[in-house]
Design goal:
Layout (H helix, E strand, L loop, with lengths): L1 E2 L6 H9 L3 H17 L3 E6 L2 E6 L2 E2 L10 E6 L4 E5 L21 E5 L2 H6 L1 H13 L5
Antiparallel strand pairs: 1-4, 2-3, 3-5, 5-6, 6-7
Helix pairs in contact: 2-4
């Protein structure tokens, strides 16, 4: 059984958001709030130079390259993309997840904070579906 040894980095995430363009920062802050308010076992950190969210509870052992602990990472290179590394394993009844990549990732694109708010309940449903797949001890 593996308890996360990943340290949460609330301050790092806050600092990164503060350095973003204000409209992007508003959208990212809203995404952040949705994740952190969905379940107390969701943590945040900077991964791949972006805000990311992970499961911080105890899990069965797994190969770290399977990204089973990583819920999603925000990619800001071309707009606002929320990438779920194991998104193909999520039962998505919302239709929000896009892409069919061979590595199993799927994503949701957002235009701005208003778009995040419009997709909020669907995003929360996807996060909860992801949590159902966690192999807990």
């Amino acid at each position: 059984m593996t308890k996360t040894n990943i340290k949460e980095d609330h301050e790092g995430v806050s600092a990164l958001i503060q350095n973003l363009d204000s409209s992007v920062a508003e959208a990212v802050s809203e995404i952040r709030q949705i994740f952190l308010s969905t379940d107390q076992e969701i943590g945040e950190q900077i991964k791949w130079n972006s805000p990311s969210f992970f499961y911080k509870g105890t899990m069965k052992d797994f190969n770290p390259k399977e990204y089973k602990r990583d819920i999603a990472v925000i990619n800001l290179r071309k707009g606002i993309l929320l990438i779920f590394p194991t998104g193909a394993s999520i039962h998505d009844s919302t239709g929000l997840l896009e892409g069919n990549y061979s590595d199993g990732r799927r994503m949701i694109g957002f235009k701005d904070k208003t778009d995040v708010i419009l997709k909020k309940e669907g995003l929360r449903k996807i996060i909860n579906e992801w949590l159902l797949n966690v192999e807990k001890c």
